[in-house]
## 1
Amino acid sequence: MWKVLHQWAKPERLYQICGWCLPGLALAAAITLLLGWVWGFGFAPPDYQQGDSVRIMYLHVPAAMGSMGIYVAMAIAAFIGLVWQMKMADLAVAAMGAVFTFIALVTGSAWGKPMWGAWWVWDARLTSELVLLFLYLGVMALYHAFDDRRIAGILILVGVVNIPIIHFSVQWWNTLHQGSTDMQQTIDPSMRTPLRWAIVGYLLLFITVTLMRLRTLILFQERKRPWAIALAHKERRR
C-alpha cells in the first residue's frame, strides 16, 4: 500500500493528477460558494436577536472551521514529510490556512462588535485563533529561511496543541465568544442549509487553490528535471 502511495506522490505523477482534478473542483467550488452566499445573504431570515448581522456567519463559520481543519491537514502532511520525505504538501496548504484564519479573525471581530461593543477583546477563543495565524506565518517564514524543512515541520507538529485549545476554549474558560456551532441544535434549518453549502464551498475552494499551489511548487522544485523542462518547452510552443 505504501509503495502505491509513494508512486502516486512522485512529483511528475502528482502534477498530472492535480491538473486532471482542477477544472471540476474549481467549478464545484464556484457553484457551492455562490449558492451558499446568495441563499444566506439574500434569502435566509435574520436572527431574532442579532438581526442581519448574523449573516456574517456565512463567511465566518466556514473560515474558522477551515482554519483549524487546514492546520490539522498540514500537521498530517508535515508528519508524512518527516517520516517519508514527501516535502511539498504541508507548504502548499500553509498560505491558505493563513488566509482562512485571517478571514475568521476579521469577520469574527465585525460580528462581535455589536455584541461586545469593541472590535477586539482578549478572549480565549480570539487569542488562540490569533496564535494560530502566527503559527501559519511562522511556518511559512521558516520554510523560506532554512533549507532544512524539517524545522518548519517540527513547529507544525508542536503547534497542533493549539487546535484543541481553540475548539474547547469556550468550555474551559468563561469567554465572551459564543459556544461552538452545533448544526443540529443551535441553528434554524432556514440558516443551516445555506451555511452547509458555504462550508462545502470553502472546502472545495481550499482544495482547488491548494492543488494549484502544489502544481506551482512541483514545477519550481523540479524545474531542472527532464520532464519539467519538456513541459516548459511544450507550453512555449503553444
## 2
Amino acid sequence: MAKVFEDVFMEIQADMISLGLDYVESQAEKVFIYVSYEESALTFNVFYQIKGKIVTISKVNEVLENKKIFNKKEVFSILDAGIQELDRLIDTCEAYGRPIPTEIRLTYDVRANSLKSDYQYEPGYINTKDLDSSDIFMEWVEAEKNK
C-alpha cells in the first residue's frame, strides 16, 4: 500500500528530531529544529532545552550531565544529515504536488512525547538585505531563552 503524503512528511520530521536527540544521547528536555528553504538555499539547525537552559549544539556541554567530546566533524555531519532530510522533504512535496515550506520550526517535548510544528510558505529573509537564515535561527534561540 502506498504511503500518503502526511505519513511521509511526518516520518521525515521524526527523522530530523532523531538527528538532534541522538547527538545529546537523549539528555534533552526539548529539541528545537529549524529548517529553511529559500531560493535553493537550504538550512538545517538544532538547539536544545537541557536542565531548563536553552543551548545551541555547540554549547551542550555547558549543561549536559554526561559530557560529549566536542567534535566539529560530528556536528557538521548532523547538520549535513539534516540537509539531506530537508532534500527528502522537498522531493516529497514535489512528488505529491504539495507546496514546499520556506521555513519549518519543530519543537519536540521529550517528556510529553509531543511535537509542535510551525510552517511558513512565504519568504522570511531572502527579500531583505540584512537578514539570513542564521539570523532567523538565532532570533528563535533568543526568544526561547527569554520565555
## 3
Amino acid sequence: RALSKVDPDAFVIRAVDGVEALEIIDADNIPRPYFIMLDVNMPRMNGHEFLQKLRMNKRDSGSMVFMFTTSDSARDIAKAYSERVNGYIVKPHGKAGMHSILDTIRGYWNICEPPMNAA
C-alpha cells in the first residue's frame, strides 16, 4: 500500500503470506522479473522458508528480493543474506521514513538491470 503512494504507476501484487506468494508466482500470470518485498514474520510460511523455496525454483531464483521487516535480529539478517537477499531493511517508525525507504528502493529498481534480462 505504501509503495502505491510512492509510485502510483507501480504494478503491485500483495500476498498475505509466503504460501499465497508462491501460488501467485507459480501461476505464471504476471510478467517477470520479480521484485519481491518480503517480511520475515508471516503466517503459514515465514520469509526464510519462502526464500528457500523461491531460490530452489531455477526460473525464479534470480528474482530481486528485499526483506522489509520489523525484525532486527542478527540471526534473521545473517540468514537472509545467506539466502541471497538484495537487501535487509528494518521497517522504520512513521510514514515519512517508510516512504523515504520505498522511494530509494524504487529508484534502485529503476536503475538496475535485473538478472533475468542479462545476456
